[in-house]
Design brief:
heterodimer; A: about 400 residues; alpha/beta; Rossmann fold; six-stranded mixed sheet; B: mainly alpha; 11 helices; about 0% strand; globular
Chain lengths: ~400, ~325
């Protein structure tokens, strides 16, 4: 009997621990001088290394302001939108986070999400609550740009008609064509396109397919994969028979990009491999193995890598390394900028009011900030269109070229 | 034609791994009629043991005979670990539920599976080089490419067979043959078959049924440990959630072959491997699970007892 009790107790412990790992409860609120900023990012799973540096970036911006804007005390809460069950962002958790933020009158800004699919869920909820949401990492085009995604996008995310969603990274209608341009620059004649059938990955793969066809890069095939599969050896054997110059994967580290690359090499393919910013994190190299990734992996990224940032951006990297004793991942500076934008907007609005802060965010104009000079357009998109192409050398990301305009 | 042959090779090699895991399911089911849901996760834990050992012994730097010896050591350690762990789980959990309603051990097995998964998640967070420094506990871990993956037919050949494929297939066949001989010709094997047929009668004949069941768990677990090393060497990635996916396929293989039937589990594993490969080739990678499970349904509609299962209760 004792042993079965032990089992029950340990089971219960596992469940409780799993439950508690989520965010701390938001305060019941009511203090008119406290403003809460929350972030909703996947903190469980392999994206965690990346999101940790994003959260560090956010904390740095708030620390620089001394935790206060005018008379307001800024409180930051770091929420997780992933679950151990999925090992990746979880729609249920994201929906719960959005509801919780919407219903907490102290929350004045929602920084997130990391995954475009998660943004799709949070956006309408926050829009109805008129709570400004600002993403450091979403790149799916349809989230903001009319006529580039599904017919009902982006109106479906804006039930009130107001723009409550902003992002500080360029979208995939810039990233996709940049990828094609880069492949052509490297002399590629043909490409085989794969995607993970998620909003972000498939959207991007579709853009690449359309652009490639128009630009004279031959598309030998385009198919979705099961991102949970153990291996892709038979898929790669099929592709090997076509020997494309490039394999493009619209997907992320979390949707098995590392395994694809590994099996590409195992199948004896001499092709190069290109993937978008969702794989631009150290976890991708460690999943694929440095030996495999070296020289083969090519990653596009909606900005320039941390070590290529200049001015305030370079200052940020330096301060980050001093403060956290580690190097920031690619998106850390975007987390920092998101928080900066929110803090500046609160200062400009001067009151604890979602509408006033939303308007102030929409009117953001950054001059010589960490990302240079830019503003939000009418859709809530950044005016920056510069992208970079990065390779892998000696197990580390290696900046190769600037893309876009 | 080359491509058909190529897919067949890939399918059979993958199928071997499913078959090895399927054996653990089918042996336990044969003797206890328990679907041991924790078996897939046991396999996953064993793969973490393997990777840890590979890291600790710096096996990636070895060559030739030293590499071979080190790998044998890893196989032995993993088999011992997962066999021992499976035996312990039976001793601590399932044995106490022998006379409980069938659902009690089943639900407990699901519980054990969750505990194993969380252990795997914790393990992935250890700060070891092979675990990626433990920065991202849940991230897939790269298992070093220890076996040569040069084409044995020469790099110019369209058909690709590597040392890796050969090692996976031959060593799996050897282990399966060993299991077959053990069940068929040893005293323990005989006791296992007797217990599977009728536990009460076996007990009356003086067989220590609980010990026999314990051995079944230990042997099934050891096979999972062996499979884990093979999987690491062949697929080169391990992940704390891989137990679920592999367990599901292996369980399907066991059912397909006729659950409780040892040759059936092997056949089921191979069929699943081959169907997956040809589905990727002919239909498209995204349809793989759909094709696989539709086939399972069709086969089970016409042969509910599975490919080699008999309607008679002759198990293990």
């Amino acid at each position: 009997m004792r042993a079965s009790h032990w089992l029950t107790i340990s089971l219960a412990a596992v469940l409780v621990l799993g439950g508690c790992k989520k965010s701390a409860q938001a305060g019941s609120g009511g203090d008119p001088k406290t403003i809460v900023i929350v972030s909703s990012l996947p903190r469980t799973g392999s994206a965690n290394a990346q999101t940790t540096t994003i959260v560090n970036g956010i904390r740095m911006a708030i620390e620089e302001a001394g935790g206060k804007v005018g008379d307001f005390t800024i409180k930051f809460e770091d929420w997780d939108d992933a679950s151990a069950k999925k090992g990746d962002w979880d729609p249920e958790v994201e929906a719960a986070n959005a509801e919780k933020a919407a219903n907490n009158p102290d929350v004045m800004a929602y920084i997130g999400t990391y995954n475009s699919g998660a943004a799709k869920i949070a956006m309408p909820v926050l829009n109805k609550a008129n709570l400004p949401m600002i993403s450091p990492a979403n790149t799916y085009t349809g989230l903001t740009k009319p006529g580039k995604g599904e017919p009902n996008e982006p109106q479906v995310y804006r039930p009130t008609g107001k723009i409550t969603y902003f992002r500080v990274v360029p979208a995939d209608d810039i990233q996709g064509p940049s990828a094609v341009k880069w492949m052509k620059q490297m002399g590629a004649k043909s490409v085989y396109i794969l995607d993970d059938r998620n909003l972000y990955g498939k959207g991007l793969a579709d853009t690449v397919e359309a652009t490639a066809a128009a630009d004279g890069l031959k598309v030998l095939g385009h198919e979705g994969i099961d991102p949970k599969a153990q291996e892709y050896k038979s898929l790669m054997a099929k592709i090997a028979a076509l020997s494309p110059d490039f394999i493009y994967y619209g997907g992320t580290t979390q949707t098995n990009a590392g395994q694809l690359l590994k099996d590409m090499v195992a199948a004896g393919l001499k092709s190069k491999f290109m993937a978008p910013d969702g794989c631009y994190e150290d976890a991708f190299i460690s999943a694929a193995g440095a030996e495999i990734a070296n020289g083969r992996a090519h990653l596009t990224f909606g900005g320039v890598p941390p070590e290529k940032l200049t001015g305030k951006g370079a200052e940020f990297v330096k301060k980050y390394e001093e403060r956290y004793k580690s190097k920031p991942e690619a998106y850390a500076v975007y987390g920092y900028v998101c928080a900066k934008v929110v803090l500046e907007a609160i200062a400009k609005a001067g009151k604890k009011d979602r509408e006033a802060i939303r308007q102030a965010i929409a009117a953001t104009e950054q001059k010589d900030g960490a990302l240079g000079t830019w503003k939000f357009d009418a859709n809530g998109d950044t005016s920056i269109t510069l992208m970079s192409g990065n390779g892998v050398k000696d197990g580390k990301f290696d900046f190769i070229t600037l893309l876009g305009n | 034609m080359t491509l058909v042959l190529q897919q067949l090779i890939i399918g059979l090699t993958n199928g071997m791994v499913f078959a090895l895991i399927a054996l653990g399911y089918t042996m336990v089911y044969g003797i206890l009629e328990l679907i041991n849901f924790a078996h897939g996760d046991l396999f996953m834990l064993a793969s973490f043991v393997a990777l840890t050992l590979v890291g600790m012994l710096s096996i990636a730097d070895l060559h030739g005979g030293a590499l071979f010896g080190a790998l044998l050591l890893v196989v032995a350690a993993c088999a011992l670990f997962s066999g021992g762990l499976n035996w312990t789980v039976d001793r601590v959990v399932y044995r106490r539920l022998r006379s409980a309603p069938k659902l009690a051990p089943l639900v407990s097995a699901i519980g054990v599976s969750f505990i194993f998964q969380n252990l795997g998640l914790f393990w992935g967070g250890l700060s070891m080089d092979v675990m990626g420094g433990g920065v991202a506990a849940a991230a897939p871990k790269a298992f070093p490419d220890l076996l040569p993956s040069d084409n044995l037919l020469g790099e110019g050949s369209a058909l690709r067979i590597t040392m890796k494929d050969v090692v996976v297939v031959l060593s799996s066949l050897a282990v399966m043959a060993g299991l077959f001989l053990l069940v068929r010709f040893t005293k323990l094997g005989k006791a296992m078959r007797a217990t599977a047929q009728n536990p009460t009668a076996a007990r009356l004949m003086g067989i220590d049924v609980d010990a026999v069941i314990g051995w079944t768990f230990a042997i099934g677990g050891a096979l999972a440990g062996f499979a884990a090393v093979i999987y690491g060497l062949y697929i080169n990635t391990i992940h704390y959630q891989m137990g679920y996916q592999n367990g599901l396929y292996a369980f399907t293989a066991a059912v397909l072959g006729g659950i409780g039937n040892i040759p059936g589990a092997v056949l089921g594993g191979l069929v699943i491997g081959v169907v997956r490969a040809f589905s990727d080739q002919a239909i498209g990678a995204e349809w793989q699970p759909a094709v696989l499970f539709s086939m399972l349904i069709v086969i089970l509609v016409f042969r509910p007892q599975g490919l080699l299962g008999s309607t008679m209760r002759e198990k293990v």
